[in-house]
Amino acid sequence: MYEDKNTFLMKARLFPITTAMVALLLVAPSCGKENTDTTEIPYVYVNFSIDPSSIEYGNLNIPGNYACINGGYRGIIVYHFTQDEYLAFERTCTYDPTVTCSKLVVEESGLIARDTCCGSGFLLLDGTPVEGSKASKSLRVYRTTYDTYYRRLHIYN
Known about the structure:
157 residues; alpha+beta; 6-stranded antiparallel β-sheet; 1 helix
């Protein structure tokens, strides 16, 4: 019984210290950060198919071209990567997706999408932020499958 009492007293003394250490570990990493790209883009269900050779999507059937289409949170950029491979990215900057002015616009080169608010740029070959961007997280990627027989591109999450 004597050992149990000592063990209990020791645990009772350590509890406030342990609690304070855990609280400090949770709060300390957020101190002094200006970067807001910890905010997640809201989840939106995406599941549809398009015909990339349709006039509606311009020259999306040619590798290296892109199309901005409705869907996702603020739209989707579809990039024709290789002959039968397409990439689809959420059209929302990962730096601060909550601001209403934020929308990605593809530059004339067709390789970089730039945010109209914070100026962050993202490479359309893989969605990573380009050097000098405020954003540090890559764009949200949607899955794609291309049916060569029916010429249908399925975009989904």
